[in-house]
Amino acid sequence: MKSSLRGRIVTAALALLIALPLVALPTGTGPSDAAVFGTLGARWTRTQDGPQKYSGYRVTPDVPIRMSDGTVLRGNLIRPTDRSGAPVREKLPTIVNMTPYTKMVSALASEVTNYPVLAPQLIDLLNGINLQGTVLSGYNELVGALRGGLIQTFSYDPKLIKSGYNMLVVDVRGTGFSQGTWQVFGDRERRDTVEVLDWASKQRWSNGKTGMAGVSYSGINQLQAAADAPGKLGAIFPVVPGADLVRDIIAPGGGLGVGFLSFWLAIVNGTKMIPNIASMLNGTFDWKWLADRVKDPLTYFDLLIDALVTRDVNGFSPQTRSMMTAGTARRDSLYTDVGAITTPSFTIGGWNDLFTNSESRMLRGLSQLPDAKKKLIMDDGYHVTSSSNFGRPGYPPRLDVLARAWYDKWLKGIDNGIDRYPQATLASEPNGGFLQGPSFPLPGHTYQRQYLRGTPSHSVNTPVAGDGSLSASRPAKRATREVKPGLSTLCDRDSAQSTAGVTALFDFCGNDTRLSETAAQTFTGRPATALTRISGTPVVHLRQRLNAPDGYWHATLNVVSPDGRSRVVSMGQLMVSLRAVDPSRSGYAPNGDLTDPVLYLSLDHYAKVRPGQILDVDIPMSATQAALKPGDRLRVDLYSLNFPKSLPLGPGLWSSQLRPQYIEIDPAKPSWVNVPLSRPLG
Fold first, then answer.
1. 290: Cβ contacts below 8 Å, ≥ 6 apart
2. Does domain 38-131+139-242+338-437 fall into CATH 1.10.287.3510?
């Protein structure tokens, strides 16, 4: 890269880096077994941070890649160079990153984080600002994310390139400097990824072996490419990816994910309009690019608005209906069958990530891969703080270290031991630390009902809408609890999750849900007498009544410490009209209880209820690895709104009229939370 251009990039990037702590996003910390890092981790780190085979790298910007339909995508090709500064002649494996956030951002992120001396010193300076124990405790975790390897995985890693890899960062169709209209994981976009991989494998600088890298969107299309073209890829390293986007973020539990979608669509639609200034100056401006942008400047905002304001399901536009109906081509394009993947896959996820639903199922879903070729790390961070503090004592190695070891093993055949790293490495909530095992859920956990009871627990020390108890024994008396809509969830962990962690900067939002509980009916158990672990997917089975044709439930499972702090470890929601469970995909305990309800979430299973009707519903919850220490209590919180994470679809919103909802506690037909426990709770 020319020095003048590099200088401008670094100057702008350092300004951004200085401002970055203002939107810091926290993850958890804690001690861990040394095997989480181990001697292998130390060896991989030395390899990544030590001298590399080649002395430098060169960026060739805006390489045109023509798709089979004539659309031209543009990518930055980064190749290692020799001492003279010329690209090496050796044919090398190629790592592809498909991004909707413009490859210009990738270049910016890579150059600043690898700028000699100044960037490391700035990060050290930021690390010296300690806000732990204050209301802005999340600040320090952001700095941990800066050094955990996330940025190198998001953009491109010069160390990886200099070790002997080509890197190709491509703007997906309709974004960045690529032609076309943005498809948001549509069929044509999925074909583009496979065609880019084929193109890269046949270039003169390639040895034919390809892998993929990237975070979030770029992690999702890694899974898609590996499933769509089995055998074409040699290795993937998806960070915070999703495989079932409707259940993950678009309409989890039937509630439209407005908190994330509106913010995210605005970012991508905004950045895709940034023109290629260099082409304007040198007379090569792409007028087709401009024409394509004019055709669709606000991709998918019309569907988002339609889904929110339409009063009746029959009034949805065809595009919205296809998104919300199972079996349509559009709906199918948003789902990835990871069971078709034969590519070695190392997934990085998080318990508070946007895609926890998909990530937690990854090891079981990758059914064609042996243990050596599939790995999963789940940390306790949010979407943009994945890997915070990785590389430090008690944590896994940095992401760039793990990615390098993974590619070296499967693209170069180097026996570095990464295939022997445990299949599951799991952060334990709410206090941190990691556990390792052969699978997720970890073996040795049994589902147990904890019943909702109307008798007070006397465990709350702050205002709540209602104080009930939780017990292994059925309730002895009938009771009715009213749940009114409220906006207290603006400040809780579910809100932080949906905004990728923004509100979790504040300790009283991300690490304590008592402020949110002012609108919740709470049900709290007795103190645990011994260490009790939770591993798997809790389920809330609720006997409820609505005074309207539809309703909306939001539930959390919390660990309450002796000082009263209530911390969420699992979250879920349900639009009652979309309550139908797909038995062919759901999990059940030997007694018939649901242990993993998978909803159809399809308009052909849409069913309103009769006002006043009492019926049972099952609320799917997010997977978790958690622990109750002696003295901790288990708590279930129930709300009838979950803003800003989501709102009911328009028909549900109009039908429910946001009226109060009711929990019916009935000894004959009780409500419970089904929890996978290492030992029974009383």
1. 275
2. no
Would you state the structure tokens that stand for residue 151, as one six-digit string?
A: 């940025």
Residue type, 222: Q
Cα dihedral 502, 377, 673, 558, rounded to 10, equals -40
CA–CA separation, 174 vs 100, rounded Å? 8
Length of the chain: 682
> Whole-angstrom Cα distance, residue 679 to residue 470?
16
Closest CA to 571 of 502, 624, 616, 520: 624
Q: How confident is the model at residue 144 (pLDDT cuts 50, 70, 90)?
A: low
Q: Which helix (H) or strand (E) holds 468?
A: strand 466-471
Rounded to the nearest 5°, which phi and psi values hold at 66? Answer: -85, 130
Q: Which band of pLDDT confidence, cut at 50, 70 and 90, is reported for residue 377?
A: very high
Q: 232: number of CA atoms within 13 Å, CB side?
A: 23
CB-neighbour burial class of residue 123 (10 A; exposed 0-12, middle 13-18, buried 19+): middle
The radius of gyration of the chain's CA atoms, rounded to the nearest angstrom, is: 25
Fill in the DSSP letter of residue 247: I
- Structure confidence by residue, pLDDT tens digits, 495-534: 777 765 565 565 667 778 998 999 999 999 999 999 999 9
**H helices within 50-128, ranges in order?**
103-113, 118-127
Question: Cα–Cα distance between 571 and 619 in angstroms, integer?
Answer: 9
The tally of CA atoms less than 13 A away on the side-chain side of residue 451 is: 19
Nearest residue to 528 (alpha-carbon basis) of 656, 671, 627: 627
Cβ atoms of 672 and 451 closer than 8 Å? yes
Residue 256 · residue 307 · CB < 8 Å: yes
Coil vs helix vs strand at 651 = helix
pLDDT in tens, 64-92: 999 999 999 999 999 999 999 999 999 99
**Contact call for residues 304 and 265 (beta carbons, < 8 A):** yes
Three-class SS of residue 395?
A: coil
Count CB neighbours of 681 within 10 A: 21
Q: Which residue intervals of the chain bear CATH 2.60.120.260?
A: 446-677
- Coil, strand or helix: which one is 650? helix
User: Residue type at 288?
Assistant: K
Q: How far apart, in whole angstroms, are the C-alpha atoms of residue 438 and residue 395?
A: 18
Residues of the chain with CATH 3.40.50.1820: 38-131+139-242+338-437
Classified as helix, coil or strand, 76 is strand
Q: Give residue 20's pLDDT band: very low, low, confident or very high (50, 70, 90).
A: very low
> What number of other Cβ atoms are within 10 A of residue 39's Cβ?
10
Looking at the DSSP bridge assignments, the partners of residue 599 are 581
| Residue whose C-alpha is closest to residue 666's, from 523, 540, 543 | 543
CATH code for the structural domain at 446-677: 2.60.120.260
Residue 98's SS3 state is strand
Cβ-in-10-Å burial (0-12, 13-18, 19+) of 487 comes to exposed
Q: How far apart are CA 387 and CA 377, in angstroms?
A: 9
The DSSP result for 335-393, as a single string, is: B--GGG--S-EEEEEETTSTTHHHHTTHHHH-TTS-GGGEEEEEES--GGGTTTTTTST
Task: Fill in the DSSP letter of residue 313.
Answer: G
* Tokens coding 411: 């693209």
Distance CA 356, CA 28 (A): 16
Can you tell me the distance from the alpha carbon of 235 to that of 219, in angstroms, rounded to the nearest whole number?
Answer: 12
Identity of the amino acid at 159: K
Give the number of other CB atoms < 10 A from CB of residue 593: 16
pLDDT for residue 682 is more than 80: yes
Q: How many CB atoms lie within 10 A of CB 678?
A: 17
